[in-house]
What does this fold into?
Amino acid sequence: MQEPPEPLLRIEGLVKTFKANKVLDGIDLTVAARETVCVLGPSGSGKSTMLRCVNWLETPDAGGIYLQDQRVGLHEDGKKPMSDKELSQIRARMGMVFQSFALWPHLSVLQNVMAAPVHVQGRPKRFVREEALAMLEKVGLAEKRDAYPSSLSGGQKQRVAIARALVMKPELMLFDEPTSALDPELVGEVLLVMRQLAREGMTMVVVTHEMAFARDVASHIAFLDQGKVAEHSTPDAFFTAPRTERARAFLKRYTNGS
It folds into this structure.
């Protein structure tokens, strides 16, 4: 019998404490290539902190994070921290889209998308420009290439942020509540791009409160509660027969729209 493939992302025993508050309390999670894992849970359950630990924007207190066979943040002994250059190299394999867009206001849309592959990866500007234009086409913003972020809607800014992450050719995309800062009428245009990425087989970990998106698109649901993975199941199982009372209460709150 053939061995299952090595997970693209592996999180083992992840612990993170802020002062006296243990935000992550032994998180275990694996994500296979081409999967979309949606991370759900009440406010304060550790969802965003977990995502920020994955690419070492937050330094965990304990546990291990592995991108394929490479440990993130620390060398294989689990003690010696990676250098800034080593961290930059492994982060380049992961694209991250934040709640708040984080675009450079003084750069045009095209310049925003081109900045990291040119200045971080050192790729030739003429090739990056072609790829950046293709990514803007992909997210439906080719006509905005010379515009500046101040002239864009929130949904357009977030689509630029997605294009900026994709042009780095990441193996894994991390989304930290990418629609939470958007007006309701703009949410759909961002989710449409993310649905297309899932169909194309991009590996994604998505922290979200968009229940319909999670139900339709996720390969698996990870439900976090009090810093632990309280449930890990298929969308059908989670949304129709959640195992824990906390998950049932969470779903009921969203179903009732309160």
In short: The mean pLDDT is 92. The beta strands are 9-18, 21-31, 36-40, 62-67, 70-71, 94-97, 172-176, 203-207, 220-225, 228-233. The longest strand covers residues 21-31. The chain has two domains: 1-93+171-258, 103-170.
